[in-house]
Amino acid sequence: MKAYVNTANKGTLNMRAAPSVTSMVLAQIPYGTSLETEFTTEEWSKVTYNGKTGYVMNKFLGESTNQVNS
To answer: Is residue 56 within 8 Å of residue 3, measured between CB atoms?
Structure first.
């Protein structure tokens, strides 16, 4: 499924090594970046960005770049 980075402040989204806010940050993904989700749980999605695979929080993803999370 395609999703877009949609942070409220239009900042970057941390991609983490594991689905945990305390896990190591592998990359910071810019606002509006299109991502393919490999699988999704209630809170996290597994994605690949710049050749690295990791996890991002679903609350910072949207179905388009026009959607703004608060």
So the answer is: no
Query: Minimal CA–CA distance to 61: which of 45, 42, 38?
Result: 45
Query: What tokens were used for 69?
Result: 């999370």
* φ, ψ (nearest 5 deg) of residue 30: -65, 150
Measured over the CA atoms of residue 34, residue 53, residue 40 and residue 37, the dihedral's sign is positive
Where do the H-state alpha helices sit in the chain? none
51 three-class SS:
coil
Residue pair 69/7 in contact by the 8 Å Cβ criterion: yes
Going from the first residue of the chain to its last (70 residues), give the mean pLDDT of each consecutive group of 10, the final group possibly shorter.
91 97 97 92 95 96 65
